[in-house]
Amino acid sequence: xxxxxxxxxxxxxxxxxxxxxxxxNEAVAYAIRQIDPDVMPAFPITPSTEIPQMVSTYIANGExxxxxxxxxxxxxxxxxxxxxxxxxxxxxxxxSSAGLAxxxxxxxxxxxxxxxxxxxxxxxxxxxxxxxNCDHSDGMGARxxxxxxxxxxxxxxxxxxxxxxxxxxxxxxxxxxxxxxxxGFITSHAVENISLLEDDAVKRFVGQYEPEEFLLNPGRPVSxxxxxxxxxxxxxxxxxxxxxxxxxxxxxxxxERFCRMSGRKYGFFEEYRMEDAEYVLLxxxxxxxxxxxxxxxxxxxxxxxxxxxxxxxxxxxAAELAExxxxxxxxxxxxLDRCESYNGVGGPLGSEVTQALYRxxxxxxxxxxxxxxxxxxxxVEHVFGIVDELRDVADGKxxxxxxxxxxxxx
Amino acid sequence: xxxTVEIRxxxxxxxGAKTAxxxxxxxxxxxxxxxxxxxxxxxxxxxxxxxxxxxxxxxxIRIHSNIYQxxxxxxxxxxxxxxxxxxxxxxxGGAVIIxxxxxxxxxxxxxxxxxxxxxxxDARAISERTLGRNFPNTPxxxxxxxxxxxxxxxxxxxxxxxxxxxxxxRKPEVIEGNMRALEEAxxxxxxxxxxxxxxxxxxx
Lengths: 410, 204
Description:
The structure holds two protein chains of two kinds.
Chain A (H helix, E strand, L loop, with lengths): L5 H5 L7 E5 L1 H12 L3 E4 L7 H11 L6 E4 L3 H14 L4 E4 L1 H6 L1 H9 L5 E6 L13 H5 L6 E4 L3 H16 L7 E6 L7 E6 L2 H8 L23 H33 L6 E4 L6 E5 L3 H14 L4 E6 L1 E3 L3 H11 L3 E6 L10 H12 L5 E6 L9 H15 L9 E2 L5
Parallel strand pairs in A: 2-3, 4-5, 5-7, 6-7, 10-11, 10-13, 13-14, 14-15
Antiparallel strand pairs in A: 1-8, 6-12, 9-11
Helix pairs in contact in A: 2-3, 2-8, 4-6, 8-10, 11-14, 12-13
Chain B lengths: L3 E9 L4 H14 L3 E7 L8 E9 L14 E4 L19 E5 L4 H4 L9 E5 L1 H9 L5 H12 L4 H15 L7 H21 L9
Parallel strand pairs in B: 1-4, 4-5, 5-6
Antiparallel strand pairs in B: 1-3, 2-3
């Protein structure tokens, strides 16, 4: 199992392991059944539709008491989520692509009103051309909306991340909404082995939701979303940023507690065969699994390659990432974006990772690759090509290309 | 069975190629394997060519890309042979399994010079006989299991019955028909395997 940690395994685990097989969407719906949240407003959109569909079945079968609100658009879904969460209800929703884009205005309101809504994002490209397949342009488009964002490599991580979302979001030091992201179709519709947790263990882990302040509390009236004059608005925004900074340590505490329950260890990112890696690929999502398989093959040929899989994109673990690159002493780093920024210089990870390296005075060669847009496949052969290029860059044979596309038709 | 077997399914939207791939993943999981079963969608409409994939392994599966050099290929709709190069990348020593009333010799000219093993099974006729309708994916699932040997016959029939019992909990009357479809297709392919000169199944 990925991420199984020796130190974790020595601790008495508090949940029995249930071996099963299911798709990423099923895994998230299964976690929702275990958590039994109060309210789910949702509007269907491919490839996330199965999540509200399966949750509706759980509700219809009387397995959970969640109030499902069938709304007429994603804008309404997030509006209803904000209302329910402000009233004091544990609230979730799910969406993809244009659905998330239509929530845009409301995403900012959920975050700035410090409402710990949990959204399952099944990543899909934004139009156009219209296309239903995976890239990260929907999540990256919402990267500055004030939501915590956590990305998954496979169904197991989508499930594990989803369960961890609630203690992170609802922690009084954080009070921010969380987006749990997985790759559309590639993991959402792929049936794979998974290790599930017991219902009771999951319920104990997320606990009862007891907000300190909420609208339906006549004993302690509050107002949510009022106008703020310029004399006070900026402090509210700084307060929100401070919460995002504090979220980092809460994410790590939650991961440690999760490890004691499950035996699976998580952090801001996973370092795979990084100890002595000369060539490193930094990326998010399902492609990290493919990169690991390729790195295993390269290692057999004596090529010291490694993978740095980013899990937590918001808050952005800049100092920790830079330190990981410094520690392994890599000669060249590939930063892979499954998203185009249309800024003429690179993708979001390319910009933020190189900034992190520069500020930490870690001066290694970097190449920013754009891959997998609108479902374009990413293969082990692509990784071999990238590592070949990194070697040439490190050896000074070629200048590092900037902003290079992988798997593009020639 | 080798350590990892990779299978590519070709079908048309609505014929159940994706469902067959997911069912194969399901039964292989029940026999203790690590599995992947996933579809690749083009345009979302009935009749459009679709591809689905299986990886079945003794160890962890990390790769999340499509399969370009499959060990086996299953073709659920023979009309695809004229528009899709179904044997592209098919490994030496593998096999292609095609739903058609024709013989392997009759369809081979449509396989772009492919020289490896070809199995044909009349999944449509079997389905119409046992289920009263054309659900070619069920007989194809049995044919693929028989040819690939990803699990033994007894385990396959035991696990698929359990899977159908769960899947068709609300209409148990269709279970027996589906089981007969599987049995007929499995028997037909077993016979064809016996007729082949070279042993097809590889052991690790």
